[in-house]
Amino acid sequence: MKYAAFLTGSQYLYGGEALEAVAADSVRIAEYLDKAACGARVKFKGVMKTSDEIVATVKQINSDDDCIGVIVWCHTFSPAKMWINGLKLLQKPLLHLHTQANRELPYDEIDMDFMNLNQAAHGDREFAYILTRMGIVRKSVVGYYEEEDTVKEINLWLDLARAYDYSSKLKICRFGDNMRDVAVTEGDKVEAHIRLGWQTDYYGIGDLKEEIAAVSGKESEALYSETLKRYELNTDNVAAVKEQIKYAIALRRFLDRAGYKAFTTNFQDLHGLRQLPGMAVQLLMADGYGFGAEGDWKIAALGAVMREMAKYRKGSTAFMEDYTYDLTHGRELVLGAHMLEVCPTMAATRPKIEVHPLGIGGKEPPARLVFDGICGDAVAVCMTDTGSGFRLICAEIELVKQPLPMPKLPVARVMWRIKPDFKSGVRAWLEAGGAHHTVVSTALTASDMEAFAALHGIEFVHIG
Predict the structure, then answer these.
(1) Burial of 129 (0-12, 13-18, 19+ CB in 10 A)
(2) pLDDT of 217-248, one tens digit each?
(3) Which of 139, 307, 344, 347 is buried deepest, with most CB atoms within 10 A?
């Protein structure tokens, strides 16, 4: 399992007995945080007393694929110049934990030995100064390590560090190119690879067609039976449903073979396929793959990363599109949907498998999962390329129950209210250059996304 390295700052000035106490306290704190951690382990990696020790430890941490970040706490005073060379090399996210081994002061017994040993109030200020001087992005957590709020903040950071690690190795598969003439789905793939770690590769739809042709009847029947256990069949066109089942098997096999965790399709590039992949994409999204429609590789990657960040939290995270509005005065709402591809983790009730004409793309009517969406506070997030760099835009929204049924709309749909209000929220999104494709999440917050943007040095816009 992935882990964060716990390092304690000290120095030789206080003698061997004091350093033994520092190590014992550090082990106790690291073990407590490890037991309370969610989504990653916490492992004590030593008391750092010299620059050489720090450099050697950082090199080991950098080369360890299982290590997602570093937690540093200064038990005693830890002269910050000895941290410079190691911090210059550090390639993992950093959390600065400002805590103490003791909760309360021993007022009747406190002496200078106690003061020299327990001076995080002193040592952590020295360490924080050098982080600021060097411009190092970090998460600062303040409080006694056993407090619920302290543990919660550390766990939120572990989610972020795990997502950062995931992002740095992410591979996106594009079946076909971007939708013709669409601007916002474009972007600098080389810069994304350099800054975010996102490797984006192109494949012709013919490569997927060959994979579909290789799917066996036994495989198809097995997934079809499993799918009927999860979702309600609401069509007589079983052949169309089984066509999507074959697509799902082929897509998964193609992606897994080369380690792709996100992918795109384009309804303008389907030569050789009978249907636009609809339910097939929904089945893969439900299992954690990122997806972007019309070749939108940025939103596919962002969706995969956000799903990883939210992996151990309650709530749903899914690809979405702002489609149309209800402009009733005082209760303005956004109807979010897509032609087919909305993740069933956003469903308020058991999704239905249905087959309907698509009305676009010139292919056979595809099977898809149809449902009404969940309710709750959420964020809608997109990544855009401004020409001078990437911009992460995050709007606070409230998912709501649709006011009336939509019996003739045969796609999954979610409705939401924009904060702080419709006019100012939408205006801010438009002026920031926000895309029509987003990732909506009830599990993540604007603070999560701001921290992710800061780690990558990306501009962040918060609407709320």
Answers:
(1) exposed
(2) 999 999 999 999 999 999 999 999 999 999 99
(3) 307
The C-alpha R_g of the chain, in whole angstroms, comes to: 25
Per-residue DSSP letters for 154-208? Answer: HHHHHHHHHHHHHHHT-EEEEES-PPTT-STT---HHHHHHHH--EEEEE-HHHH
Phi, psi of 120 (to 5 degrees): -60, -35
Torsion of CA 369, 372, 378, 379, to 10 degrees: 50
Q: Please check whether residue 373 is in contact with residue 442, taking contact to mean a CB–CB distance below 8 angstroms.
A: no
> In a 3-state reduction of DSSP, which class is residue 396?
strand
Residue 389 pLDDT level (bands cut at 50, 70, 90): very high
3-state SS assignment for residue 335? strand
With vertex at residue 177, the alpha carbon angle to CA 172 and CA 178, rounded to the nearest 5 degrees, is 95
Q: How far apart are CA 125 and CA 121, in angstroms?
A: 7
E strand segments, 30-166: 41-48, 67-74, 94-98, 139-142
Give strand ranges (E) for 217-357: 232-233, 262-264, 290-292, 317-326, 333-337, 352-355
